[in-house]
């Protein structure tokens, strides 16, 4: 079977037009704005926040009171400002929240802000 050339499948590749390649590369450079590792780290932190808030409020994600923890906003604040802002956001939580606050502050160390201020 394998010795019969007429029954073997072949895959053929055709060379693309060379004039399209530089435009494709230029587009790729424009769309890659953020480091993939930074994005993954931020996503991991956001998932950790969701899980911890469920534990703190002892409910499902949909039942958590209206609460938005903005990582970029925290990164703009000095260390004590970050802690104060988190305490303010979590004031409705009846459980001890210091472990959550300490854990979040530890996790965001070294993160960079994702978007700069908008210029008008």
TrEMBL record:
Classification via SUPFAM superfamilies: Myosin phosphatase inhibitor 17kDa protein, CPI-17
Gene3D superfamilies cross-referenced by the UniProt entry: CPI-17
GO CC aspect terms: cytoplasm
Assigned keywords, A-Z: Acetylation, Phosphoprotein, Protein phosphatase inhibitor
Gene Ontology MF terms: protein serine/threonine phosphatase inhibitor activity
Record field: compositional bias (Polar residues): 1-11
Source organism, top-level taxon: Eukaryota
InterPro entries (alphabetical): CPI-17, CPI-17_sf
GO biological process: innate immune response
Region (Disordered): 1-20
Family, as annotated: Belongs to the PP1 inhibitor family.
Protein name: Protein phosphatase 1 regulatory inhibitor subunit 14D
